[in-house]
Write a structure and sequence with these properties.
63% of the residues lie in helices and 0% in strands. By secondary structure, the protein is mainly α. The chain folds into 2 domains: 4-64; 120-199, no CATH class. The chain is rod-shaped, with a radius of gyration of 55 Å.
Length: 201
């Protein structure tokens, strides 16, 4: 970019041309050039500012180059290979021992609580034997204990529900065992007896 002094010199030369102008066209073009130079003069920097700008440009060019940062070596303490305990350094903290897992004994009380709840639910008293038997258990009892006869199953359950004591129910179940020949190790029969026992608990 031109300095103010350079632009002033150009305006001075154009002014001399105007004084010697012989045609209107040359006069008009020269006057227009002078006007453009005056506008440039208004925005042109001084010589001092231009020098500073050039210096800044040089600084910018220098700053565009990648700066290499060399890693500083980490100072480590001397390692004593013959000592019993390792000497901790600044870079590496001393190792921490892992936390021991909680002993399994703490889980035992919870297990006992779960078992006691299960036992309470298992031996909880039921008021209606028929309503307490699920649909899967019902068909299992019919097929394995009453030879697939639903009518005899319903009759037996209604009869057990009508008894006033567990002794009467046990006597009736003993007759059912003889009639339908329930085996002693039949777990389905044991489940049925357990439900009857809860009915009279």
């Amino acid at each position: 970019m031109k300095t103010k002094d350079e632009i002033k010199h150009e305006i001075y030369e154009l002014a001399q041309k105007i004084s010697k102008a012989s045609s209107d066209k040359f006069l008009t073009e020269t006057a227009r050039d002078i006007y453009e130079k005056v506008v440039l003069l208004k925005h042109a920097p001084d010589e001092e500012h231009q020098v500073i700008a050039k210096q800044e440009e040089k600084i910018v060019v220098i700053s565009e180059e990648p700066v290499k940062i060399e890693p500083q070596p980490i100072k480590q303490a001397a390692i004593d290979l013959f000592s019993a305990e390792p000497v901790p350094t600044e870079a590496t903290p001393p190792p921490q021992l892992p936390e021991k897992p909680a002993p399994k004994e703490r889980k035992e009380p919870k297990k006992k609580v779960d078992e006691s709840v299960a036992e309470k639910l298992q031996y909880k008293k039921i008021t209606d034997l028929k309503a307490s038997i699920g649909i899967n258990e019902k068909f299992q009892f019919i097929n394995e204990l009453f030879e697939g006869n639903m009518k005899e199953y319903n009759c037996a359950v209604d009869q057990i529900n009508s008894f006033a004591s567990h002794a009467e129910a046990e006597s009736y179940i003993g007759n059912l065992e003889n009639v339908y020949k329930w085996q002693a190790d039949n777990h389905v029969a044991e489940n049925f007896k357990e439900l009857v026992q809860r009915r009279f608990a």
